[in-house]
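dude i think i finally got it to work??
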Amino acid sequence: MFPDINLLLSTVWDQGEEFIYTRFFSQASNIVLGTNPPYSVVDFSAIYPKFIGPATVLTGTFTQGSPTVTVASTAGVAIGQLVIGSAIAPGSTISGFTANTSITLSQNAIADATGASFNDYQAPLLPIGVINAYIALASSRLVQARWLSDWTMGMADLIGHFATLWLLSEGDGCSTPGKAAAAGLAQGIATSESAGPVSIGMQPTPGLEEWAAFNLTLYGLRFAQTARSIGSGPLWIY
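look at this
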C-alpha cells in the first residue's frame, strides 16, 4: 500500500499538498490571478477622447443618492448619452428625461450640487453601449496583476482597436442589404497604391498566429506589441 502523500508532505514541510501546489508550483507556472480595478468609458475617453466626441455643457441640481437631476434645458438631450461631472458617478448615461425639466441618470448622484456644470456627450462616434461592451470584453481578457503599469494603456488600445473595427463595418450606416454586406467584408491590409488609373493592392489579414485583425488598426498594433513583450510565460497544469 502506498503511503498517504498528503500526510508525508505535512510531516516533511508541515503543510499539505494543496499548500505546496498553491504556494510554489502556481508561482512557477506563471499563472497570474487577480481582479481588475474599475474601468469606465470615462477612463477610455481620457486617453482617446475622439471616440466620445465634443461635450455640451449643461447645468443642473443634484441630490446625492438620487438619479434625478433638475436642469435648465434638455435641448439636444437623448437617452444613452454619456454624462460626466463632479457629482456624477463615472460611466453614467442618461436613462430618461422630461422636456425642459429634468433628466434621469443611469446611476445615482454621488454628491449634492446646485447649479453645477456637467458635460453631456451628444455625438459620440459610436454608441456608448458599444464602448461599454468592449470595455467588458477588454477587462475579461487583460489581468491587471500581469499587465501592471501597462494595464491602463493596454485596455485603451484594445478598446480603441475594437471600436475602430466597429466603425469600419457600422460607422457609415447601411441603408440597403448590399451596403450592409459590403461593410462587413474583410478588407485586408493595403500593400500598394497608385493614382491613375486608381488601384490598390491588398494583402489578406495574416493568420491568428500573426495577430490577425490586430494588424488592421494602429491601436491593435500597439496592443499586440505590448502584449508580446509581456507574454504568458511557462505553464504547468496538473
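Residues 58 and 118 are 5 Å apart (CA to CA).
im so relieved honestly
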